[in-house]
Amino acid sequence: MRNAALVLFLRGLALALLLAAPARASGLDAALLARLAGSDTAARLAAISALGELADPRAAQVLQALGDGKLAAAPGGRMLIDTGNGRAVDAATGEETALPPDADGVIVNNRLRRAISAALAGSRLFSEDPAQRLAAAQRLAQDGDPARLPAIARALAAERSDRVRAALEIAQASLELKSADPAVRRHAVELLGRTDNAAFRPALAAMAAQRPDGSYGEPDPAVRAAAESALRGIDRHLATVEWMGNLFYGLSLGSILLLAALGLAITFGLMGVINMAHGELLMIGAYVAYVVQLLFRRYVPGWMDWYVIAALPAAFVVAAAVGMALERTVIRWLYGRPLETLLATWGISLILMQGVRSLFGAQNVEVANPSWMSGGVTVLGGLVLTYNRLAIIAFALLVVFFVWLLLNHTRLGLFVRAITQNRRMADCVGVPTGRVDMLAFGLGSGIAGLAGVALSQLGNVGPDLGRGYLVDSFMVVVLGGVGQLAGTVVAAMGLGGVNKFLEPYAGAVMAKITILVLIILFVQKRPQGLFAPRGRSAE
Amino acid sequence: MSAPATHALTGQGAARAQTGLPAGAQAPAPALAALARRPLFPPAAWAGLLAATAALALLPLLNLAFAPGHPLHVSAYAVALLGKFMCYALAALALDLVWGYAGILSLGHGLFFALGGYAHGMYLMRAIGRDGVYGSDLPDFMVFLDWKAYPWYWSFTDHFWYAMLLVVAVPGALAFVFGYFAFRSRIKGVYFSIITQALTFAAMLLFFRNDTGFGGNNGFTDFKRILGFDITAPGTRAALYWATLAALAGFLVLARAVTQSKLGRVLTAIRDSESRLRFIGYEPLGFKLFVWTLSAVMCGIAGALYVPQVGIINPGEMSTETSIEMVIWVATGGRGTLVGPIVGAGAVNGLKTWFTSVFPEFWLYALGLIFVLSTLFLPQGLVGLARRLAARRGKEA
Lengths: 539, 397
Hints:
The structure holds two protein chains of two kinds. By secondary structure, chain A is mostly helical. Chain A contains 21 helices and seven strands. The longest helix of chain A has 51 residues, at 221-271. In chain B, the strands form two sheets. A two-stranded antiparallel sheet of chain B has the order 1-4. A two-stranded antiparallel sheet of chain B has the order 2-3.
């Protein structure tokens, strides 16, 4: 009983406080508000600007209403904010009233509108929402008016959030750049230089640059030197970001190449067979992801985010089944004739491609990223590492780890390595080479299927998805040599990295051409790849 | 890696290799009589070759002499199609020379074909003169890119014979340099195939760029005249057709001469067992390089004949797909037979023409099946099949 009474009491108290809040906050000067509706534009502009400097969230409300044409002047000088349905709020006190029928809407022109928008940014510095404060600070940093400096200083004094504080300091510095006092300017330049933000580069560069008449953008030499050093700092940071970006995209491309080539390297190493249908196995994997996605959407829409996980085993199984069927029906009959195998598998790739085209249409199909793979994390203030690329890098490493485990710590792996080294000898000591061939081919194809799921998360899924990766994955295998997992990993990562680091200088196409030519030259030196098998097995 | 299996494939090649002793200083002993050099073609083959050439040569005459509707009229379409097929056949013949005889599988012959085509195309583009859309001295695509002058590598291409020199020299030089390095490092088998594929792919990317100066994506087209003759006139077309036919027949005889010579036998030995040949004391580099370069030149000439007849050349000719399709012409017809690739190019492309007009969506299935079935069941191609059937009939009779 007593508890219930207490709760009731507390509830009443809270309600009272809540009701009192608007009244407490009303610090708006009615005279100031009345000037908004006057006919003197200069006075109106001054009023708007004054509102913008008030550390009162309600000022922002008034400005917003003014900009939206919702502010009305009632007879008697009261300003009302029209809230619709004939109701209104008194702008000065926050009291709710009925909208008098004879209230005049305050008309604003474009000049006023601009002033309102600038004043709003200033006034939002005192908004209760940190995100709004942050946005206002960032906006002021870009195109602020030095007149806002006192408001920023006041906001800084009151600000608690570190992010908003930092943004406010930047805004303050960028406004101080326009100050007449060299010491203030210098302080501002140093602060901006520390931000590493490319947005300030033009302003700093303009200060450091010499005009055609010989004068500098910045008259004071000390400030100019500070600006130059700040510029260098920003440039250095930008170069770092670019370098890190290249590294990330190189790693990402490398992991894709690795996934695409890993299966090929296994089958090529084992059987000396280049499987031209390998690209189509990737494509099949991607289409399995598409089908699994459709099934999830229809039957378990609540689990849509996890369809990719379910697609992985499905793609592995389907691609492995196709691969094993291929091995049984075609490749097996062409042993010892690698060039013919190449042609036959090319024929199969045509059939698979056209088959998918008949089943799913020639158009690309849509495979969506699950929500946990979309978006990204921003590092170094400008480099976005997208989650799907991060996930694929991790996935590639995982796949390599499992393949390594399989090849080095299972019986099948032992057999595969034995056959890769010397097929006849392995056969002689009782390795069932035929069965191992089939299983290994299935393994290679299954990995291709997994890679296909990964690719479906990055780009378009269409019948000729595999073609794009064919030459690239051959290059990885040729470069890496056969029979060595490490060779494939190094070759894929190396190719990806070199490609992405060349691209900024040469352009995407020339980078690719350069790489192909480099590989052709490299193979002249080491025809068996980076990690060539040595000894008798080396022919 | 492939030595034991290729033996099985190349029965007649191996047999020919045994006839390799020169009829030299000492008179051949009776036991070696079988090894004496055989004539270039048996008389029956000569007769067949001449008959086929004459029959093919007659077609444009029938097109020119008889009006449409006449029972003996051959449509211009058919003549153009056959002209195109003969260009393909020449390319296939070139490929057979390296693959069928030296065991070098190139997945990049489309590159040489296209280079020959582009070299000729440069002349044809300049022969348009001011009849282009923009009425400029420069080709339309250069006007479009706002270029003011021809790049240096276009110099002199307004002279027909200089362009013809390029047709031979560019693919030849590229093949020579590439082949020299590849063969010197003993890159062979699948590795070589993949490297040639990479080369073609790189070239295709290069030619796709507008900045390369070869018309980018669209390549060369809208040709107006060749050596002053209207390129679409039936007479010009017939002349191009005859030129193609002459080139094909001539190169067939040349290829036969090469493969029948001592050099040809060394090539066959390279194909069947390169290491053994090395042990005997031969250096395969020169032999391979010769046949590889010759093949590239032939392919370039095929491309040069192809462009005026088809009226377009674009980087698509350098794609991986095109080059592999060339290989299947050889495989279907029968590798290492010289005639086979010509038959194969005609058969596969005839099928392609038929399919793409009747069942376009099934052509890739059919082509895929041709690839699989011909490698699985026709290791010696159509020619091999015909020979086997003939041998069986001979036994029964």
